Write a sequence for this structure.
């Protein structure tokens, strides 16, 4: 039992180990910071671009790609473990925040699964050559020193810049809060969801992230620091203290950031420029009846703010780092010996040379310096494996070499072994003699050890705590101290052993001085709770007993950091001047860039109050560079110190403030302006369109800043020196005057900032060029009024028609307008945005009307007047919006009489004004006596009695503009004129012409009789119907009050446009035209007011017009109570496309419609799911092969509709159904057609349909019909099978009770190949298989691959069995067993049922008249055929009757059937032979 339990535990642990391993394997691929293939590359790209905007020489394109490649490759597994740096706790990755796994488990697991190397912080990683060298298979040594070495020593520029990319990667990671707040963010490990910030930033790539120029334009510059360590530490501090990671939101681990303001569901903080940004999201959860706030950063608005600020830091600092790298590289080229060479493993031969060199150095005579020089020159420790014991052993080897033969040392070693392996092998020999070493040697040993550690730059925190000897002074006077436990102020601290330390060379603000809190907090961030290294200069302590030291942590010189970041000033302190130039340079840098106290407290304000503090580079160097430095007034003896726990500040450096009552306040400085979202250092602003700006800056606490700009504003300076004020600008130039005034009335100097308010957009204009009314080619151009128009942004637009929708004009300025349409008016406008973002008003609208046929025949008096039939006249009409010159226009008849050229002796234009008439009178001006003719012509018009007239109107280019093909109207008896109905369109059709309908007007003929017409005025039949053609480009309604509507040209309802037709409207479609619905049509009639679409002719015929076509883009169309008449035009060669309505791959709802008198189809549904309900299809089809409804594909529903009277004598259909799926055809009636329903390769569902008076009153299945899916035949019209129906592909054909199957072919029937046939009737509704007239069908045949789930129940099979006497049968079952129950098998021409290798069950079956020649049965049977023929089968037959068959039952010798209760007919109903053999039943 114990063995079993242990085995289970082992298995459990084994699989747990696999699970954990997989988790960590996923972790190391997912715990990177920014995405290496997108965001890192994008940021690095922008860093280089930002650098190139400020420095020379620029980074070349090739160098840029090397750097970017390096930034990507720093994420090579498993380097990422060293990408964390928590600047508050001075730690690298700790495995924290990894879901439900504890940090020790995650960190230990990573050491097992990912790498056995202990992770270090990125601050250490960027310089640790030894550790990085051990990653040789994963990128190797990519440290800052390696990059410098490559470019300065090896002259390998590519390798140097590639390595620099690795460094920039670490810098970018320092701007990721997860990496500076020790949030592992490993998706999938312990249920962790990963980092929302990193997931958000994945979207940024080199292609879509381009901000360098914008940053430069906004006033940002590269950040300059003097060491790479400073850069990484300050960035880490920035992201740690100002932003949250997902799992460290207000978790108490860190004191910052804090929420300064809550509003609109967000918590806000302020950025470096005092602007609010979203810090976290605030929602509420109800717990125990109370609402609890829930904080999160998972919000795109928050993450956008984070990335905006953090990426800015990465780019501005990264550019400064490239500058630092190039500067250090130049220095290194001048002094290459200062470079730290990359580590390499020494071979045994190299080791011998090394030891020999040390032997020669004379170190055994007690020269510790020689030891140190030898070590620094030769010793290379193996990365990460170094221990103090091993280092001490190395020294002992050197010490004892005089007792060891060098040749023996290499015995058994190969050349590729390292010094460490030699040390390990020989250390035991050396240690035997260790007790004999002198104390002096031990001390030298420690100095050597310390120097070696410093040389290799392995942090002391990585050395084991089991060192054999205590820590002693380091090289150069350095020493590692206990952790810092308290901070007095920005330059004084207390160690854990209560030793007080005063930082040399700096002076931070005292309590109650400006920037005191900030300086103190910064020093705490750097060193509080951490081990530091102290370095002595000259002095040991000051007079108060405080140690005077330089402090270092993680390669950062804390003294210098405080100066360079603006938290302290450089301060000359006695003779301690080791770093005087560095401190002076940092002081100057912070002051010039207004960092920290220089920004908040005022330039030199603090320095002026302290004689020992020197402002400016020159004065600092001067004060620190003397061999005999000036004596400084001693600090006052401090009061007794309070305990640090009481949080009281040290007052050792406090000094009295100088009186300022008679001194003017500081002139306001460090001015900044915020205009909207734009921030800039205050300087002259060329232009802004924001009427309100925010000015903020620094000044003397307690003073008042006066801002004069009309009106005058005042702002109070806070105690920390900050102030701000929102002011309103005046349009144009604003000279903003700024000064300070203190309580005593003293005023500072005045500063003037010039800001121009440009909030009014420029004017613009647009025009049409190369334009002609009758041409569809023209150009559109635009311009702006301002001088800077060339750099302005134009927004041209156009619309079609007055009520059209404005849309962008996508052509270049002065280009040709494309795709202009005839009889269309285009409108153009433009507005412009200037370079300052001001948007101007829309310009005046330019117009371009296109009408290639603007002039039409409007009225013809072909019959003359009552005064004389010779007094003919013609009226033209200008239907355009522009005047037209008619000079040299022609009116010409086909027989050249008349042939009129409109001209005169002058050269002046002969104008027909826009919307006006032009009257031409024959022979003289007396034809219409009281109206002056515009032109006199000669030549008579034909009368209908003498022949048809074809009249053309031509322009000067001989182009036909209008024509009349016949006298469509007019009266020769009453002399009533022929008038055009629609004068706004040119339409040569009879529907557009009517006879004058008035009683005569003011116009008089030559005999002063009334003119029965309307010369030079609106026609009496004007707009008697509405004419519509071409495009409907906006939502339109056909109103009943304007009915009828004439469709004179192909009509196109554009996509996304709706045409609504009101109840009672009549739409007349011109000959051959069609309506295309690419959008939506709503034809919504009613039972009392139906809508009619019909022919425009006076004597309509089937096929006068084409169709209504619903395209694939049509949506939501409906036709209710709508009649479609005389459509479906048959066009020879295109008859297959002819129909009254076509629906193509869209869905239309048809309710209570009728389609009549269509020349071909009525309704054509192609791949449509349309619904047809309560429709009537009547008198369709004068062409063979057409249908009232033709369905191809799709899944429509046809119900409750009437199909009648197709006029073709053959091959006409009620519903022709091809390849549709899941369609429903129900409750329809069919009459007077060939085929009510014709099925080709489809499986519909039928129910409730009726048919009468058709050629075939049923549902006809085409030749070759196959069942390849599940199909159900319900009780409905008879199903006509015209061939052998195959059931394949495991399909199921179910025939339900009451269905009738009529097989219309001698070779027809059903063959079940590899599917299922279920024929399941009931006693009241049997299923019947039969044939038409006296024909014979073949069989139902179950093959050996048919399903055993097949069955026949309550079925009648009759008049089948077509075939030869040997194989013929009406029901054939081969190779499977099925159940036949309550069936009738009768009148088979051959066998009734044939069983081959089948053990079927047959019960309650009547076998009658099979193969019989009985008179009763018709006498057509074959002598040798049996009603039931059993071959090689063992069936069960029970309760069945055999009568009037040629042979009742026949079985071969291989069969063994079972019989129960079998009855044979007697007398007139007897079989010729009951059984074969006779004793088959054992009787």
């Amino acid at each position: 039992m114990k063995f079993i339990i242990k085995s289970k535990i082992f298995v459990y642990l084994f699989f747990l180990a696999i699970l954990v391993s997989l988790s960590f394997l996923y972790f190391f691929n997912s715990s990177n910071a920014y995405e290496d293939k997108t965001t890192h590359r994008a940021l690095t790209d922008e860093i280089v671009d930002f650098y190139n905007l400020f420095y020379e020489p620029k980074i070349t394109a090739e160098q840029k790609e090397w750097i970017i490649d390096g930034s990507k490759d720093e994420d090579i597994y498993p380097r990422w473990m060293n990408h964390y740096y928590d600047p508050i706790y001075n730690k690298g990755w700790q495995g924290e925040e990894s879901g439900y796994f504890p940090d020790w488990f995650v960190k230990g697991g990573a050491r097992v699964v990912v790498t056995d190397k202990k992770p270090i912080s990125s601050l250490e990683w960027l310089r640790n050559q030894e550790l990085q060298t051990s990653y040789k298979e994963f990128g190797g040594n990519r440290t800052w020193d390696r990059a410098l070495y490559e470019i300065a020593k090896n002259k390998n520029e590519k390798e140097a810049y590639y390595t620099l990319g690795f460094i920039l990667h670490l810098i970018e990671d320092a701007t990721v809060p997860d990496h500076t707040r020790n949030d592992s963010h490993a998706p999938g490990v312990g249920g962790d969801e990963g980092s929302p910030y990193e997931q958000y930033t994945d979207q940024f790539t080199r292609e879509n992230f381009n901000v360098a120029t914008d940053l430069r334009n906004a006033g940002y510059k590269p950040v300059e620091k003097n060491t790479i360590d400073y850069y990484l530490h300050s960035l880490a501090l920035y992201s740690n203290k100002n932003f949250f990671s997902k799992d460290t939101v207000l978790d108490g681990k860190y004191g910052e950031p804090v929420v300064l303001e809550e509003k609109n569901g967000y918590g806000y903080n302020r950025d470096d420029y005092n602007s609010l940004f979203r810090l976290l999201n605030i929602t509420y959860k109800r717990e125990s009846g109370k609402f609890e706030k829930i904080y999160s950063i998972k919000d795109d608005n928050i993450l956008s703010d984070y990335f905006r600020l953090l990426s800015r830091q990465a780019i501005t600092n990264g550019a400064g780092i490239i500058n630092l790298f190039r500067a250090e590289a130049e220095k290194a080229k001048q002094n290459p010996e200062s470079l730290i060479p990359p580590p390499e493993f020494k071979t045994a031969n190299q080791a011998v040379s090394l030891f020999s060199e040390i032997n020669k150095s004379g170190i055994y005579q007690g020269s510790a310096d020689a030891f140190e020089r030898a070590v620094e020159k030769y010793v290379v420790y193996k990365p990460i494996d170094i221990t103090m014991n091993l280092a001490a052993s190395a020294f002992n080897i050197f010490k004892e070499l005089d007792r060891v033969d060098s040749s023996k040392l290499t015995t058994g070693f190969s050349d590729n072994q390292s010094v460490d392996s030699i040390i390990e092998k020989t250390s035991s020999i050396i240690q035997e003699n260790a007790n004999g070493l002198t104390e002096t040697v031990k001390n030298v040993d420690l100095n050597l050890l310390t120097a070696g550690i410093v040389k290799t730059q392995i942090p002391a925190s990585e050395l084991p705590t089991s060192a054999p000897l205590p820590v002693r002074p380091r090289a150069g006077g350095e020493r590692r101290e206990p952790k810092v436990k308290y901070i007095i102020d920005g330059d004084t601290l207390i160690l854990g052993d209560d030793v007080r330390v005063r930082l040399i060379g700096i002076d931070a603000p005292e309590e109650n001085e400006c920037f005191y809190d900030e300086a103190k907090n910064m020093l705490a961030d750097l060193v509080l709770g951490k081990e530091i290294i102290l370095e002595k200069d000259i002095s040991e302590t000051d007079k108060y007993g405080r140690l005077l030291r330089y402090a270092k942590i993680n390669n950062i010189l804390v003294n210098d950091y405080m100066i360079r970041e603006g938290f302290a000033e450089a301060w000359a302190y006695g003779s301690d001047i080791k770093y005087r130039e560095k401190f002076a340079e940092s002081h100057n840098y912070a002051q010039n860039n207004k960092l920290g106290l220089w920004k908040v407290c005022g330039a030199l304000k603090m320095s002026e109050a302290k004689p020992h503090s020197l402002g400016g580079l020159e004065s600092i160097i001067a004060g620190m560079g003397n061999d005999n430095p000036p004596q400084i007034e001693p600090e006052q003896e401090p009061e007794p110190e309070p305990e640090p726990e009481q949080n009281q500040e040290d007052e050792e450096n406090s000094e009295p403030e100088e009186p300022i009552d008679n001194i003017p306040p500081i002139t306001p400085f460090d001015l900044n302006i915020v205009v909207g979202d734009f921030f800039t250092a205050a300087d002259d602003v060329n232009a802004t369109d924001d009427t309100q700006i925010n000015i903020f800056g620094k000044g003397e606490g307690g003073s008042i800043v006066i801002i004069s700009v009309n009106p005058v504003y005042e702002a109070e300076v806070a105690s920390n020196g900050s102030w701000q004020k929102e002011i309103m600008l005046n349009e144009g130039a604003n000279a903003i005057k700024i000064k300070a005034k203190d309580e005593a009335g003293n005023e500072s100097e005045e500063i003037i900032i010039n800001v121009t308010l440009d909030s009014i957009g420029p004017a613009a204009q647009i025009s049409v060029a190369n334009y002609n009314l009758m041409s569809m080619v023209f150009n559109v151009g635009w311009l702006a009024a301002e001088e800077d128009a060339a750099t302005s942004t134009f927004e041209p637009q156009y619309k079609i028609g007055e009520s059209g929708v404005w849309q962008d004009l996508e052509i270049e300025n002065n280009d040709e307008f494309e795709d202009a349409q005839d009889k269309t008016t285009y409108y153009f406008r433009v507005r412009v945005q200037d370079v300052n973002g001001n948007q101007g008003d829309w310009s005046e609208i330019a117009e371009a009307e296109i009408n290639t046929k603007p002039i039409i025949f409007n009225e013809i008096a072909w019959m003359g007047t009552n005064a004389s039939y010779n007094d003919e006249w013609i009226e033209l009409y200008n239907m355009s919006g522009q005047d037209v010159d008619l000079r040299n226009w022609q009116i010409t008849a086909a027989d050249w009489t008349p042939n009129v050229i409109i001209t005169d002796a002058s050269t002046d234009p002969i104008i027909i004004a826009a919307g006006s008439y032009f009257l031409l009178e024959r022979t003289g001006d007396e034809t219409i006596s009281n109206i002056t003719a515009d032109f006199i012509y000669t030549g008579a018009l034909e009368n209908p009695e003498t022949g048809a007239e074809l009249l053309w109107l031509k322009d000067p280019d001989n182009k036909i503009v209008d024509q009349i093909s016949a006298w469509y109207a007019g009266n020769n008896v009453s002399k009533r004129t022929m008038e055009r109905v629609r004068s706004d369109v040119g339409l040569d059709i009879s529907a557009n012409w009517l006879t004058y309908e008035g009683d005569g007007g003011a116009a008089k003929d030559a005999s002063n009789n009334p003119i029965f017409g309307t010369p030079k005025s609106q026609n009496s039949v004007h707009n008697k119907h509405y004419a519509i053609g071409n495009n409907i480009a906006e939502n339109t309604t056909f109103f009943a009050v304007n009915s009828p509507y004439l469709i004179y040209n192909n009509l196109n309802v554009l996509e996304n446009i709706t045409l609504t037709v009101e109840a009672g409207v009549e739409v007349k479609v011109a000959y051959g035209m069609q309506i295309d619905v690419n959008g939506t049509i709503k034809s919504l009639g009613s039972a009392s007011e139906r809508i009619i679409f019909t022919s425009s002719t006076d004597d309509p015929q089937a096929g006068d017009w084409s169709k209504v076509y619903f395209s694939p883009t049509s949506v939501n169309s409906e036709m209710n109570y709508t009649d479609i008449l005389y459509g479906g035009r048959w066009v020879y060669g295109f008859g297959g496309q002819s129909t009254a309505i076509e629906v193509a791959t869209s869905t239309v709802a048809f309710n209570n419609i009728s389609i009549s008198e269509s020349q071909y189809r009525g309704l054509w549904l192609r791949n449509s799911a349309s619904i047809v309900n309560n429709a009537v299809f009547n008198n369709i089809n004068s062409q063979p092969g057409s249908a009232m409804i033709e369905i191809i594909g799709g899944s429509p529903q046809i119900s409750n509709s009437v199909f009648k009277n197709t006029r073709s004598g053959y091959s006409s259909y009620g519903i022709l159904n091809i390849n549709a799926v899941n369609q429903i055809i129900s409750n329809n009636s069919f009459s007077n057609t060939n085929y009510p329903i014709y099925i080709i390769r489809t499986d519909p569902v039928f129910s409730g349909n009726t048919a009468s008076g058709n050629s075939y009153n049923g549902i006809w299945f085409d030749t070759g019909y196959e069942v390849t899916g599940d199909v159900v035949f319900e009780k409905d019209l008879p199903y006509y099978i015209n061939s052998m129906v195959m059931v394949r592909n495991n399909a199921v054909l179910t025939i339900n009770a009451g269905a009738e199957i009529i097989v219309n072919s001698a070779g027809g029937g059903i063959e079940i190949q590899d599917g299922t046939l279920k024929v399941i009737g009931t006693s009241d509704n049997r299923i019947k298989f039969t044939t038409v007239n006296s024909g014979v069908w073949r069989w139902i045949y179950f093959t050996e691959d048919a399903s055993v789930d097949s069955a026949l129940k309550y079925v009648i099979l009759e008049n089948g069995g077509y075939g030869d006497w040997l194989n013929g049968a009406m029901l054939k079952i081969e190779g499977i067993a099925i159940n036949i129950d309550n069936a009738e098998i009768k009148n088979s021409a051959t066998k009734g049922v044939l069983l081959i290798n089948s053990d079927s069950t047959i019960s309650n079956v009547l076998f009658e008249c099979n193969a019989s020649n009985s008179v009763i049965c018709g006498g057509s049977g074959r002598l040798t055929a049996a009603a039931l023929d059993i071959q090689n089968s063992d069936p069960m037959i029970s309760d069945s009757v055999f009568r009037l068959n040629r042979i009742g039952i026949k079985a071969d010798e291989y069969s063994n059937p079972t019989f129960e209760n079998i009855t044979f007919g007697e007398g007139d109903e007897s079989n010729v032979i009951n059984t074969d053999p006779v004793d088959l039943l054992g009787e």
User: Anything to note?
Assistant: The longest strand covers residues 276-287. Residues 1-31, 345-476, 603-661 have pLDDT under 50 and may be disordered. The CA atoms of residues 412 and 422 lie 10 Å apart.
